[in-house]
Each structure stands twice: as structure tokens, then as C-alpha cells.
Design a protein that fits this description.
The complex is a heterotrimer of chains A (374), B (224) and C (408). Chain A is an alpha/beta fold and 374 residues long. Helices cover 65% and strands 8% of the residues of chain A. Chain A is elongated. The relative contact order of chain A is 0.08. By secondary structure, chain B is α/β, with parallel strands linked by helices. Chain C is elongated and about 105 Å long. Chain C has a four-stranded mixed beta sheet. Chain C has 408 residues and is of the alpha/beta class. In chain C, helix 12 packs across helix 14. Classes of the chains: A alpha/beta (374), B alpha/beta (224), C alpha/beta (408). The interface between A and B is medium-sized, with 26 and 36 residues.
């Protein structure tokens, strides 16, 4: 063990900065990306065209309220221009507030107050409609409440001593003062509540893919050391090259796992990512799969450049298939995709088994070392 | 004793060695000469068990080179490859220590340093990449001796070494043979070195140039 | 003259080199097409299966008062309207958890004990939702639905309080008043649930020449050909080039000449490939393009390619570490693809990002390609792209010049 560490240290100390860089880039990149996505997510806006046929207090209030919703950017346009922009997909959707909006609303008639246009490329039409409807609904139900109060007065034959405007103002005040109902969300199995309904790109998600890629960038030592002329010397030592490489593969796996554990402790404090014994077990399994994959592939490849490119391509394929697989939700996917181990905590995965078998084969085969080498 | 019996080596259809037989005795230094591509390195690789022969056999101390024996036998072999097989980014000391860790025989710091002194390499703390070609060759030899082999196979070990060092290395090899009874097989294109060093000279290949050259200088050359 | 000779000599070397590798080449080039094809195919499939199966939500009722039971009944009735998306079911917490473990339930909502009472007496109430970790996307959708329902309850609540304020004047009996208020509450809640009448909907199809598929087709073409450009560039990378270049430079060949020769070949190969791809694209969508359009498209595309290649070359010259170089090239390509709007349309970007887009070459290039191909524009402004290309080339040459002087 001490000898192994010494030998590894000799190799590492010459390129220490480079190795440290690739060791910590997944952590650094994750922190940066999470921060970036957070900002972008908050500032992403859906451009909505808003056409007001008749400018009235209520229609302007509606436009203002919609603008206040952080997800939308409201463009006040005339109908022709709005539809033109929608056709060119410069707007996600267009909403036209029909004439007589105020009168209808006051009468409690909500039917077809607004006409919406979506295009075949609208991403967010449904959620825009939902928001607009609930805003209109807010306005409408205030009038309904005012009507109910007026009804009460009529019912008991008392002359009304309060105006509709006053009632509506009062309703607004009450809602602002007393929002009683709140919701919270957590996932089954988690102790804590998720602050914002967990985004698809969780820190773990980002980290997993970047660390997958950098594992390849860290494992070029295999190629350098197995290809070196020095490899011949191992024939005359007590260890074969394969044993030597496998030992150091284990060393790397343990070392990288320790760094992973530290990283996830930091993630726990930074982003409230859940950690537990079972989680670390899956983390180890995941680290094992990463390293063994990089190791096995490095045994087949001669040039570092090709090795890096392979790592890059595999990462690319992994990301794309993961995103597809998540939406497709097949049981085969959870079994076949390596990222599922950590991201969903599925132990039953083909890669730990397959890689172990391949590693054993490599280990056994080196015993047949007195065979032709050219 | 190392016996080579009717060793033939083919690469595909091309025959490199045809029915080669000879014996290497302890304390003996054998030189291999011949033109480029004559099969010297291939023969040395077969002796060093890096490549198995296509047919024929190699027997070391009554033990046949085969899968069962080879691991044990290899511990007696020292091999100095033609390509410099050392870690370029390590220092001389680190290289020696690295391979000491892998050696079946433990050697302490002083012993390793002594080995380097023996081959007249005194740049103990310098990085290999800063050394001259000749220096690297010396280290290449020193590393091969860490595990105290009884058989030493050298493939053009002194290419690029200055004349003085060459002589020093020759002396050192000679002392290894005489004092420790090491059997040495040696490939070189330097005829002075061959004449000065070798007890026996074998010639490989079709071109008789080297053979004639050495015979003219009064040496007995056997064609394999 | 000597310079040109050197340039052509290297041109030949690179041609030979690319010939030697031609067998593996088509496979590598197909990879982005296969990837994008598979993505499209599978996401269409995934969307279809999602439509077939509604999201299952459990409702756990710990309150058991008459009012909450009625409220839940209303909810259950209301779900008929969107049955194909959501399916709600009243469950107790244990069976909800069991179903979640079996992965048949996406989420469940717990109405806590004294839910209605607390609400009526003006106490804050927390409605808890538990999501299924294996169905995170659905869980988020459920959370949005719950939030929306809560908004309606809150509005209804505020109006009830308003009515209550006046009802106190008329109805003295607390019991009677409570009953009246609950009726009002239900009426408001149902009023809210039937809000979907407010907006009527029409779909606008995009302009005659442009269809959804054409839009995405053009984006796909842009992405594929950009990735190809990088692949071709990497393909001509030679590990021994560094060692060789010293010897080559001894013959008086400058780094700049080698670089320009390489870039010419990269651009040449890439241009042929992209032309083939574009031809395919044009035939699939049956685009009515005339000679002038081709001229415009070629000019824009060529300018774009020159900039990409110049940036790749700059990264190669500035970063000696092979892995660092690859990573940086990857990040650059990704960033420029994203900012072009080929992956997500730029209209969804934050506004301050949108302000900067015209200064980004990839956005500029895709924008004009879209204008010509999708919107049938008969005009393109080349100046911004051309200037960016000039700047990129000059920067690259400057780096090559400095680097060439330093290393010899």
C-alpha cells in the first residue's frame, strides 16, 4: 500500500496542478452552473403579445398584473402586428382582450372575455392561459363578492351604504393581508422540504455528467503507463503490468471516492442535497462504474487524444440518452443507463456487473503472459 | 546454463530465425552481430522470454520456458531494451526507487546508488528528461540490474554513449561476468566493443560483412 | 511565391492525411445525425406515452369534517374536465405511500386535521404535498396544479371574509351565518374552477413557407453542420505535428502557413459535407430557393464557418494541454450553439441576454438563415458577420504570428 502510494505520487507530482484541476473541476463547474442556471431560470421570460381593444382600468390592471408575474414579458401591440410576430415566432402567444371587458366582468359574465392565439411552436401557451385565467378570475370574483354583498343588502331591504369600488378595494386589501393557505413540497424518503419544486438540473445531475467526463481526462495515466517502453520491464518484476495497473486503478477509485464524499458533504450544506449511508453506497458504486469504464476503455486505446475524444462522445451519448430515457421511463432504461445508479439510486444496473466481469477477464488473462507480443 | 534448441521464429510467413541452437554458460559474454533486420533483437527477445519461439525450445537451468516456469525464470533475467525504458519525467533516484519497489529483491538506498556509480552515472537527483542520451542509456542498464539477475540480455545498450563511458561500462559488464558469474548476451554494432568484451561471437543474417570483418581481426565467429 | 508554395505543399499533406482516414470518417460524421434523429424520435414517442397515461394524484384527508368532504367531492367532479391528464383518488396515507413505492402514484396531497376550521377562523394552514422521487417531472406538474388551486381558495377566502364582514350586520345567529358562508365559499370555489370559459383559443399556423418541421429542420442542420465542423477540425489533428513542426519550420515554413493550409482543408471538407446536408434538407422540405438565395446562404454560412474555425484554432494555439483544449472547444461550441437559438429559441432568453445577441456571430448567422429560408427574405446584412470574420481571422493570425516567433 505504502509502495503503491509512493509510486503513484512519483507519477502525480510532476503534473500535480493539472491533476488537481481535473479533480476539482466537476465541483467548481457544478457550483458555477447551478448559480448560472438559477439566474437564467429566474430571468427567463415568455414573450406574450397583449392586445387591448379598449383601454379601461380593468384591462390595464390585468396587463400590469401579468407583467408582474416574473415569467412573462408583455408586449402591448395592435392585433395585426401581434399576430404577425406570432407567425414569425417572435412571440410565444397572443391574447386579445375583447371590447366591453369591464362591463361584462361587472355583470359577472366571464364568457370569452379574452381570445388567445397560440402557434404550432408555442412552448408555454397552457401555463400562460392558466395565469391569465386566474388573474381574470381574481377580478371577476371580486365583482361577484361585491354583488353578493349587494344581494345581502337587498335581501334585508336595507339601502346600500357602500359603493362597489369600495368593496373591491376592501377585497384586495383582505387578500393582501391574509393569505392563509400555503403549500409545501417534499419528496418521499426525504426529511427536508424542497425549497423550490426540485428542478430537473439538480446539482447532482450536473455533477454526475461532468465528473463522468473528467474521469476520462484523469485516466489517461493508464494509456501513458501501459504504452511506455517501460512496460516491458514489468515482465521481469514481481508484478505484471496488468496487476500494477489494476492496483493503481483501485487506488484511484478509493481516492476519487473520498473526494466525491467531500464534494457531497459540501453540496449538502450548499444545496441541501440528501446524504445518507445508502447514498454513499450508491455514490461508491457510481464512482466504481465511472473509473472501471474509463479504465477498461483506456486498455483498448493507444493514443490519449483518441481516448479523450471517446470520453467526450460517451458523455455526450450519456446525456442525450438520459434526457430521453427520463421522459420515456422504461424499466430497461433504469437497468441500462449508468447515471441511473446515482440519480435514482438504482443498484440494479448492468454496468457494475459487466465492468466487473471484464476486469476479472483482464486480470485472469494477464497470467497467460508468455504468449506472442509483437 | 541456458540452452537454445532449434529455435525458429516466424512473423506471419516471414521467417526471422531458422533452427538456431547454442548454449550460454555462466560467466560467459556472448556477442550477437549481423546487419539490420537479421534477427538479433528477435533472438534476444526470445532469450529474454519477451516473445515465445514459433518452434524449438529455450531451457534455463534445466527448466523449459513455458507458462508454468516463466514467472520464476524471469526473475533471473535482466533485460536492457534498445528503446530506453525509463520514466522520462522522474529523476534518476526516483526511477531506481520505483523499480526497486517492483523488484522481487529488496535493495536499500545505498545499493541503488552504488549501482548507478557502477555504470558511472552520478546525476542522482536530475530529471531524466534533462539527461543526455548516453546518461539515459546508463540508467537503462542500471535499472535492469536492480533485481540481481543471473542472465543479462542487452540490446545495443551503448548507442550514443561517449567512448570513455563505453569502456567503463565494458569493464563493469566484464566484472559482472567474472565476479558474479553472470551470463551476458550482447548485441552491438561496435566491433571494437565486441572484440574487447565477448568470449564468443555469433553471427546472424545472410550478409557476411561483419563476420569477415571480425575474422580479419582474428576472432572466431560462429554463424547461427 | 515561396509562401504560396509552402501553403500548397501543406495543403497536399493534409489532403493525403484526410484520405488515409476516410474509412472511419463517414461513421463519425453520422454520429450527430443519429444522435439528433434518435432524440427527436424518442422524444416524440415519450410525449405520446405521456399523453396516454394520466398523472395519478392521491388525496389524503386527515380533516374528515363535512365541509372538507364536500370540497373534495367538488374537486373529484371537476377533474372530469381534464381526466386525460390527471387522475385523482382519495386514499389514506399508508396506501398512498405503498402506491408510491410501487411507482404507480406521482404525488399525494395531505389535507391536515382541522383544515377547514382553521381556515375559517383565519389561522394559517399548510397544505403538504409529497412527491415521488422516481417521477420528479410529474411531481412538479402536480405542485403547479396544487398551487393554482390554492390561489383560487385564497381568493375565495378573501371574498368570503369580505362578505362575512357585511353578513355580521344582517345575520346574528353564528350557526346560520357559518352555513351561509360555507355555501358562499363553495360557490366561489366552483366559480373559480369553471374559469376555463374565460379564454377562447385559436391556433395560428406560421407563415405559408415555414412549418414547425422546417423550423426545427433548419436548427438541426445548423447544429449538425457546426458539430461536423468541429469533428473535421479534430480529425485533422496530428499528435506528431508538434514534433514535426520544428523540423518543418527549419525549412522556412511559418506556423501561419501550416495553420492556413489546415484551415483551408477543414473548411473545404466541411463545405462539401454541409452542401450535401443542405441539399438533403432542401429536398426534404421542398424549398423554393433560387440562385440568389443560394448565394446569400453560402455567403452567410461560409462567414460563419470561418469564424468557428478561427476560434477553434485560437483555442488550440493558446492552450497546450490536450484535454483543456478539448474541454474549452466543447464549451465554446455549446455556448455558441445555445446563443444562436438553435437549441432553445432566443425569444425565451432573459432580456439582458437578448440585448447582446446581435453581437454574437452564431445568432447573427442563424438569424439570417432563418430570415432567408423560413421567412423568404430577399436580403441579408452581411456586414456584421463579415466584420466578425475579419476580426476573428486577424486575431488568429496575430496569435499564430506571436506563437511562431516565440517557439523558434
Amino acid at each position: 500500500m505504502k509502495q503503491m502510494l509512493y509510486m503513484r505520487w512519483l507519477h502525480m507530482k510532476r503534473q500535480l496542478y493539472s491533476i488537481l484541476f481535473w479533480l476539482f473541476i466537476p465541483f467548481i463547474a457544478t457550483v458555477v452552473l447551478v448559480q448560472l442556471l438559477d439566474v437564467v431560470k429566474d430571468d427567463t421570460s415568455i414573450p406574450v403579445g397583449f392586445v387591448i381593444k379598449e383601454e379601461t382600468p380593468l384591462t390595464l390592471e390585468l396587463a400590469k398584473k401579468l407583467e408582474e408575474e416574473s415569467f412573462f414579458t408583455i408586449h402591448l401591440l395592435d392585433e395585426k402586428e401581434a399576430l404577425n410576430q406570432l407567425e414569425k415566432h417572435e412571440l410565444d402567444s397572443v391574447f386579445i382582450v375583447r371590447e366591453g371587458y369591464d362591463e361584462k366582468l361587472e355583470k359577472g359574465n366571464r364568457h370569452k372575455l379574452i381570445h388567445g392565439y397560440e402557434s404550432d411552436m408555442s412552448f408555454a401557451y397552457v401555463s400562460t392561459i392558466e395565469t391569465i385565467q386566474s388573474l381574470v378570475q381574481q377580478q371577476a370574483s371580486r365583482y361577484k363578492a361585491a354583488n353578493e354583498v349587494a344581494k345581502l343588502y337587498r335581501q334585508f331591504d336595507i339601502p346600500i351604504d357602500v359603493t362597489e369600488e369600495e368593496l373591491i378595494e376592501r377585497s384586495k386589501e383582505i387578500e393582501a393581508e391574509r393569505t392563509l393557505l400555503h403549500t409545501s413540497m417534499k419528496y418521499r424518503g426525504d426529511e427536508q422540504h424542497t425549497s423550490n419544486a426540485a428542478s430537473f438540473f439538480s446539482p447532482t445531475f450536473i455533477w454526475v455528467f461532468i465528473s463522468f467526463l473528467t474521469t476520462f481526462f484523469l485516466f489517461d495515466w493508464v494509456i501513458k503507463e501501459k504504452n511506455a517502453h517501460v512496460a516491458t520491464r514489468f515482465l521481469f518484476t514481481k508484478k505484471s503490468v496488468t496487476t500494477y495497473l489494476l492496483e493503481h486503478f483501485i487506488l484511484y477509485t478509493v481516492g476519487l471516492f473520498m473526494i466525491d464524499v467531500i464534494v457531497f458533504f459540501i453540496f449538502h450544506f450548499l444545496y441541501n442535497e440528501q446524504i445518507s449511508w445508502t447514498f454513499f453506497l450508491t455514490l461508491f458504486l457510481c464512482r466504481y462504474v465511472w473509473n472501471s469504464s474509463a479504465f477498461l476503455i483506456s486498455m483498448w486505446i493507444k493514443r490519449p487524444f483518441i481516448f479523450y475524444l471517446t470520453g467526450l462522445s460517451i458523455t455526450f451519448v450519456a446525456i442525450v440518452t438520459y434526457v430521453i430515457g427520463i421522459t420515456a421511463q422504461s424499466t430497461w432504461f433504469t437497468f441500462l443507463h449508468p447515471m441511473e445508479i446515482l440519480l435514482q439510486g438504482n443498484y440494479m444496473n448492468v454496468w457494475p456487473i459487466l465492468n466487473s466481469v471484464l476486469l476479472i477477464i483482464i486480470f485472469i488473462r494477464k497470467e497467460d503472459s508468455y504468449v506472442a507480443r509483437t | 546454463m541456458l540452452h537454445v534448441h532449434n529455435v525458429t521464429k516466424k512473423f506471419g510467413k516471414k521467417t526471422i530465425l531458422q533452427d538456431v541452437s547454442f548454449t550460454v554458460k555462466p560467466g560467459q559474454i556472448i556477442g550477437l552481430v549481423g546487419e539490420n533486420g537479421a534477427g538479433k533483437s528477435t533472438l534476444l527477445n526470445v532469450l529474454a522470454s519477451i516473445q515465445p519461439p514459433t518452434s524449438g525450445e529455450v531451457v534455463m537451468e534445466e527448466k523449459l520456458y513455458n507458462r508454468k516456469n516463466i514467472k520464476k525464470l524471469r526473475q533471473k533475467i535482466g533485460y536492457v531494451p534498445q528503446d530506453i525504458a525509463i520514466w522520462e519525467e522522474f529523476t534518476v533516484a526516483e526511477n531506481m526507487h520505483f523499480f526497486e519497489k517492483l523488484s522481487p529483491i529488496k535493495r536499500d538506498h545505498t545499493a541503488l546508488k552504488q549501482l548507478c556509480d557502477d555504470v558511472h552515472l552520478n546525476r542522482w537527483h536530475d530529471r531524466v528528461s534533462t539527461l543526455s542520451g548516453g546518461m539515459k542509456r546508463k540508467l537503462n542498464i542500471a535499472i535492469s540490474l536492480i533485481h540481481e539477475p543471473t542472465y543479462l540480455f542487452l540490446d545495443e545498450p551503448t548507442v550514443g554513449i561517449d567512448l570513455k563511458s563505453k569502456v567503463e561500462i565494458s569493464h563493469f559488464l566484464k566484472s559482472l561476468a567474472k565476479e558474479r558469474g553472470m551470463a551476458i548476451v550482447y548485441i552491438s554494432h561496435d566491433m571494437d566493443e565486441i572484440i574487447q568484451l565477448c568470449d564468443e561471437i555469433y553471427h546472424l543474417g545472410a550478409d557476411p560483412f561483419y563476420k569477415e570483418l571480425l575474422t580479419e581481426r582474428g576472432k572466431i565467429v560462429t554463424t547461427l | 511565391m515561396q509562401t504560396l508554395k509552402h501553403y500548397f505543399m501543406f495543403l497536399q499533406i493534409y489532403v493525403k492525411q484526410s484520405k488515409r482516414k476516410w474509412l472511419t470518417f463517414p461513421l463519425i460524421l453520422l454520429s450527430p445525425i443519429i444522435m439528433i434523429g434518435a432524440t427527436l424520435f424518442l422524444s416524440v414517442q415519450a410525449l405520446q406515452t405521456e399523453e396516454a397515461e394520466p398523472i395519478r394524484i392521491g388525496i389524503v384527508n386527515d380533516d374528515q369534517s363535512e365541509e372538507i368532504t364536500m370540497l373534495i367531492d367538488v374537486l373529484m367532479e371537476a377533474q372530469e374536465a381534464f381526466e386525460q391528464y390527471v387522475h385523482m383518488e382519495v386514499l389514506d396515507e399508508t396506501s398512498a405511500q405503498e402506491q408510491m413505492d410501487e411507482n404507480t402514484l406521482s404525488a399525494y396531497v395531505v389535507f391536515p386535521a382541522n383544515f377547514i376550521e382553521d381556515l375559517f377562523y383565519g389561522q394559517e394552514v399548510l397544505l403538504e404535498m409529497v412527491g415521488n422521487k422516481q417521477k420528479q417531472v410529474e411531481s412538479i406538474v402536480v405542485k403547479e396544479i396544487v398551487d393554482s388551486v390554492m390561489r383560487h381558495i385564497n381568493t375565495s377566502q378573501a371574498n368570503i371574509l369580505l362578505i362575512n364582514h357585511y353578513a355580521k350586520k344582517f345575520i346574528d345567529d353564528k350557526e346560520v351565518r357559518n352555513e351561509f358562508l360555507f355555501e358562499q365559499f363553495m360557490s366561489f370555489f366552483m366559480y373559480a374552477l369553471s374559469k376555463d370559459k374565460i379564454v377562447s383559443t385559436d391556433e395560428v399556423t406560421n407563415i405559408a413557407t415555414s412549418s414547425l418541421y422546417l423550423y426545427y429542420g433548419l436548427s438541426a442542420f445548423f447544429i449538425i453542420s457546426t458539430i461536423w465542423l468541429w469533428i473535421v477540425y479534430l480529425f485533422l489533428y496530428r499528435e506528431e505535428a508538434d514534433r514535426m513542426s520544428v523540423r518543418i519550420r527549419l525549412y522556412g515554413v511559418t506556423l501561419t502557413q501550416q495553420l492556413l493550409a489546415k484551415l483551408t482543408i477543414v473548411l473545404g471538407i466541411h463545405f462539401i459535407l454541409s452542401f450535401g446536408l443542405f441539399f438533403l434538407f432542401k429536398n426534404i422540405f421542398d424549398l423554393p430557393l433560387d440562385g440568389e438565395d443560394y448565394g446569400r446562404i453560402t455567403t452567410i454560412f461560409a462567414l460563419y464557418s470561418v469564424i468557428v474555425v478561427a476560434i477553434l484554432a485560437m483555442i488550440e494555439m493558446l492552450i497546450t494541454s490536450l484535454k483543456g483544449r478539448l474541454l474549452l472547444q466543447l464549451i465554446t461550441i455549446l455556448l455558441f450553439l445555445i446563443s444562436s437559438g438553435a437549441i432553445v429559441p432566443t425569444i425565451y432568453f432573459p432580456l439582458y441576454v437578448q440585448d447582446w445577441l446581435p453581437y454574437i456571430y452564431s445568432y447573427e448567422a442563424l438569424f439570417w438563415l432563418q430570415e432567408i429560408i423560413l421567412n423568404g427574405r430577399l436580403y441579408a446584412a452581411y456586414a456584421p458577420l463579415a466584420w466578425m470574420a475579419v476580426v476573428a481571422m486577424l486575431l488568429m493570425l496575430a496569435i499564430a504570428f506571436v506563437k511562431g516567433r516565440r517557439t523558434i
